[in-house]
Amino acid sequence: MRSGFVSFVGRPNVGKSTLLNSILGKRVAITSDKPQTTRNMIQGIYNDKDTQIVFVDTPGIHKPKSRLGKVLNKQAYYSINDVDIVVLVVDISEKIGTGDKFVIDVLKNIENKPVFLVINKIDKLPKEEILKKIDEYQKLYDFAEIIPVSARKKDNTDRLLEVIKKYLPDNIKYFDDNTITSSSPSFIISEFIREKILDLTSEEIPYSVTVIVENLEEDERSMSINAVVVVDRENLKKIIIGKNGSMIKEIGIRSRKDIETYFNKRVYLELFVKVVDKWRDKEKFLNMIGYKDFLNK
Predict the structure, then answer these.
(1) Range 2-167: architecture per CATH
(2) In angstroms, how far is the first alpha carbon of the chain from the final one?
């Protein structure tokens, strides 16, 4: 039996969460083209007859502009040091920038564990361009393996799994075979709601919004959910609510649909909007919403 932990790292918006969902065949991480989509380390568990891989999807490593941003970076750094394999995911359709080089510099401090390069979005470039990009990355770091993929189209993700399995140690299973994520139902629900907000609102919203599930009651057939959308300015509250409540209603409709599909239950969802000034820099608030372990590291 082979098992172990594999961390997906990289700068924001390179497709780490899409890759995780593609491998697992189920959405355990929300996806968006907006910044700071992933804000927590999300564990997705892959099982087959002789392997268990615990994937850790991390927040994109970036130059932080708030206390929250610093915490997100700390989560990513922690995951690098606490796994068996590190996988750097890059977007091949974009030039190698300072963000990519910064992440690679972080990886140069890693000792005694393999670092893979996964070149994502290969469907966007011809083969000749892909080979040129691979050569450019090879000059920056001595990767143990380089695997080109298209996470969106699931191209070559099976090859990535095969390569990962070869590097995993002989070990026990960390989770039972039916577990696909370690995330709690409340966290999954809050992420679905936040994803719909990112999809439906303007560019400034993603940095400024979080979602808290204040109450969750469920039985075998249904779930009743009260959730609060938190923003840091009054004008953003107005955007989230929309004219005559139209935006918050649409967010609720789309969120409820995804939650029902995921849990296979009928869902009753109530959404509220609240302003907490400068919440991204308030230690007490960040502690309350689950970042306690990384605030003082």
Answers:
(1) 3-Layer(aba) Sandwich (3.40)
(2) 34
- Whether residue 3 contacts residue 168, with contact meaning beta carbons closer than 8 Å, is answered with yes
CA separation for the pair 128, 131 (Å, rounded): 5
The CA-atom distances, in angstroms, between 183 and each of 29, 41, 43, 114, 118 are 10, 9, 7, 26, 25
Do the Cβ atoms of 244 and 237 come closer than 8 Å?
Answer: no
Distance CA 113, CA 172 (A): 19
Neighbours of 4 (CB within 10 A): 19
pLDDT of 33: 54
For 215-251, the pLDDT digits (tens) are 999 999 999 999 999 998 999 999 999 999 999 999 9
Distance of CA 148 to the CA centre of its chain: 20
Cα four-point dihedral sign 157, 159, 161, 167: negative
Taking the domains of the chain in order of start, what are their residue ranges?
A: 2-167, 185-295
Fold of 185-295: GMP Synthetase; Chain A, domain 3 (3.30.300)
This prediction has a pTM of 0.81
